Amino acid sequence: MTTILPDAALDALLAQDVPYGDLTTDALGIAARPARMSFAARGAMVLAGTEEAARLVEKAGGRIRRVEPSGTAVEAGAVFLEADGPAGSLHRAWKVAQTLVEYASGIATRARRIVDAAPGVTVACTRKNFPGAKDLSVKAVQAGGAVMHRLGLSETLLVFPEHRAFLSEPVETWIAALRRKAPEKKIVVEVGSVEEAVAFATAGADVIQLEKLPPDAARAVIGATRHLTPPPVVAPAGGVTEANAAAYAAAGCRLLITSAPFFGQPADVKVVLGPA
Fold this sequence. Notes:
alpha/beta; Aldehyde Oxidoreductase, domain 3; TIM Barrel; four-stranded parallel beta sheet; 40% helix; 22% strand; nicotinate-nucleotide diphosphorylase (carboxylating) activity; transferase; NadC/ModD
């Protein structure tokens, strides 16, 4: 992963944590002393946000000696970032950089577990990231080997039951209208039953999103729509985790939609900061 958050976003993170200087470090008179800092994984994890952490250190006035890229799988005890510089600079960047890596790596690690549980299947994460943290969440998802299902409402057609509640015309009519208005887009329809899935697929939906339906239901939909030209993509959504990803893959699903990577414990990073 080479893309990093823009400097303006990193400046804002530092400003939130150190708005008027580091009172403790300055009051102790140690800000100018030479120091070094290292980040290490306390447990196995997939790294994410390390480039941002390194940039935070640099912006605070430190120097990066080594950093492993996002997407790297590391074992417990592995050192993945080393820096040196004035103690005041390292103290300013320390906690912001550590927390950023911990949250991002937690997402990346959970995403990688789902990807590993279903080899050959595309794992796509929803937009249910923590509000205000989309840029870092997207990067973490990608670091884990997954992709984004949709980045927002502006670029994809996804028809929910809450949309259909306002429609009175036959399904074939509004699907055809969508096709005319956005011919370059796939039409995705979320359904809550096998019967709905087959009906919307027959009417021309490109992707059938199964809301919290079990693997057996996914298998039934795939079997019932296989004859269509082309057959729809059948994508389970809601409740997809590393525990059931393999079962959905065995049912024939080639796309899994999940929010699970966004919810869970952050990764645990050990920081050592001391005299050079």
